[in-house]
Specification:
The protein is mostly helical. It folds into two domains: 57 residues, no CATH class; 105 residues, Serine Threonine Protein Phosphatase 5, Tetratricopeptide repeat, CATH 1.25.40. Helices cover 69% and strands 7% of the residues. The protein has eight helices and two strands. It has a two-stranded antiparallel sheet with strand order 1-2. A hairpin with a 5-residue loop joins strand 1 and strand 2. Helix 3 packs antiparallel against helix 4, helix 5 crosses helix 6 and helix 7 crosses helix 8. The protein is globular, with a radius of gyration of 19 Å. The chain starts with a helix and ends with a helix.
């Protein structure tokens, strides 16, 4: 039984290795999807040793080729890095400007949870991150371009709030 397990394990490793080599070749040829998949593989350590520098390199290549998903992946990694290196203070306020001012307090653990949910594709988490970048968040400066990309991602995932914000922003141009 152990022999069969190790044979299957060896075959799985060979298949992953061959697939990884093919993805790398496609990435060198400028295939954006392959570059994003490589970034994700190295970010999460899926079948390889996790390597954030390699993940960033692949995401950056895809972003330079125009991938909005790669730009978002880089933004999430950047925010994750800031949280882990305590660049973001423990208690911050999100102030949403409008007719009425809304202040919402988030702790670092709240922000880590939002970031984790965004990486899992949660539309509300993307909307929350968009709001943070739209208005600024404690030590995180407002970044309208990043906010717009996050709103678009949230809308694409089905967030009606994000769709409304995008329509509002479009009408203000």
């Amino acid at each position: 039984m152990k022999k069969i397990f190790f044979i299957l394990l060896g075959f799985s490793f060979f298949a992953l290795s061959a697939n990884l080599d093919e993805l790398k070749k496609e990435g060198r040829d400028g295939n954006i999807d392959a570059l994003i998949r490589l970034g994700y593989i190295y970010e999460t350590g899926s079948g390889v040793k996790a390597d954030l520098q390699k993940a960033i390199r692949y995401y950056r290549q895809a972003a330079e080729l125009g991938s909005e998903d790669a730009k978002l992946a880089l933004a999430l990694l950047d925010l994750h890095s800031k949280i882990n290196t305590k660049v973001v203070s423990l208690s911050n306020s999100v102030v949403i400007k409008g007719e009425n001012k809304l202040t919402y307090k988030l702790s670092v653990s709240d922000l880590k949870n939002v970031l984790k949910r965004a990486k899992e594709g949660d539309k509300d988490a993307f909307f929350t991150l968009a709001t943070i970048y739209d208005n600024g968040y404690g030590d995180i400066k407002a970044d309208k371009e990043r906010a717009l990309a996050l709103y678009k991602k949230a809308a694409k995932l089905g967030s009606n709030k994000a769709k409304s914000i995008l329509l509002l922003k479009q009408s203000q141009k």
